[in-house]
Specification:
With about 375 residues, this protein is an all-alpha fold. Helix content is about 75%, strand content about 0%. Helix 4 crosses helix 10, helix 4 packs across helix 12 and helix 7 runs antiparallel to helix 13. The longest helix is centred in the C-terminal third of the chain and has 34 residues. The chain is globular, with a radius of gyration of 22 Å. It starts with a helix and ends with a helix.
């Protein structure tokens, strides 16, 4: 029954959002059926639609998992955006510094060493950036929402500074680093999948995202550390009484969350642009959209995958809605996202109210 509810309510939230969206489209004198045909059809066409949908979903899986791990510990990680920026720059730095890039490298590692090193740098830098607000929360009681938001600004300012003054090609009008070594590139799936062009940037990071889902599930539900994180999130006082160091779990959860967000840098730098491009997430807000992904996915890795695919499809389809409809713009996608979050949050709120009401009734009896 619980599993059915966990599947059913997010679907109801999505359908309700599309219904309200259809009313909005009607109010601006356009055809909702044709609009949704464009939105969904363009996202599911082969090869471009599916290829780009999966590509857009990849970073959202990482950030959705990042937010979900923090949620399981009773924390709200608003800092995935900053964590992924730091991680993307770290991955690019490794690809430049150890890849034999002329005039900038101190070593020329092979791909077998360079790619894992760049991935490790992305995860480690994201973990450190996430652990800092975790330590401040555990040691001083500072609220993680405020700290992570502030660290987003610090992260973007720092990587922009280093890009501008140390790693940008001379005369380049775009704020981006020089290209990373070809040895640090990861393959695009077009090399292996018949009919999928290599111009579509979907790459091996998609399979890394799926692997991360499996590992997060094992970590949270099959290990002692995951149990302690979930216990801390469910009831910190009871967890402390049971001998769990809640402060340690807070730091661990935020570090793991930051490491997962950092994997966005692998997709962006090693598999797509092959350099660090400043503010690459600003148009989408991968870190912030990850909150919606985690909420819709019920903070479970399986749910996160489907929610990320849904939001990836919206991102892809919004482009065609903007081009081929008369009055509807791609902002409809943002409206649908907001409505989904609103309906999911409303269901969680009323479920909490009903749960407390039931407890009160049993207490009176």
């Amino acid at each position: 029954m619980k599993l059915l509810r966990e599947i059913l309510f997010p679907l109801i939230a999505v359908l309700a959002a599309f219904l309200v969206g259809a009313i909005i489209v009607l109010l601006i004198h356009d055809d909702p059926i044709e609009t949704y045909k464009l939105l969904i059809g363009s996202a599911l066409s082969w090869p471009d639609g599916i290829g780009y949908t999966l590509f857009y979903a990849t970073p959202l899986i990482f950030t959705g998992l990042a937010v979900a791990v923090a949620f399981r510990c009773g924390l709200l990680n608003i800092g995935a955006e900053g964590q992924l920026y730091v991680a993307a720059f770290a991955a690019a730095w490794v690809g430049i510094t150890f890849g034999g890039v002329e005039g900038r490298s101190i070593a020329n590692l092979s791909a077998w060493l360079l790619v894992p090193l760049a991935c490790f740098a992305a995860m480690a830098s994201g973990a450190v950036w996430g652990a800092v607000p975790g330590v401040l929360k555990a040691k001083f009681g500072s609220h993680e929402v405020i700290n992570t938001i502030m660290m987003n600004f610090i992260a973007l300012a720092l990587v922009s500074y280093f890009t501008q003054y140390h790693y940008k090609a001379q005369g380049d009008p775009i704020l981006q680093t020089v290209p990373i070594s070809a040895s640090a590139h990861i393959a695009r799936l077009g090399k292996f999948i018949p009919g999928l062009p290599e111009r579509i940037p979907l790459n091996i990071a998609f399979f890394l995202a799926l692997l991360a889902c499996v590992l997060v599930y094992i970590f949270l539900w099959r290990t002692k550390w995951g149990y302690e994180i979930r216990a801390t999130g469910a009831n910190p006082a009871a967890a402390e009484y049971g001998g769990i160091s809640t402060g340690r779990q807070i730091v661990l959860a935020m570090a793991v969350s930051g490491a997962l967000a950092g994997l966005v840098g692998v997709n962006e730098v090693l598999g797509y642009r092959y350099r660090y491009y400043d503010s690459f997430s600003s148009g989408v807000g991968y870190g912030f959209t990850g909150i919606a992904v985690a909420l819709l996915g019920r903070n479970h890795p399986v749910g996160v995958v489907f929610a990320a695919l849904f939001f990836g499809a919206l991102k892809r389809g919004g482009l065609f809605v903007d081009i081929f409809t008369e009055h509807v713009s791609k902002d409809l996608v943002e409206v649908l996202k907001a409505l989904v979050i609103l309906f999911v949050a409303a269901e969680l709120y009323f479920r909490g109210r009903l749960g407390r009401f039931g407890l009160m009734r049993r207490a009176k009896i």
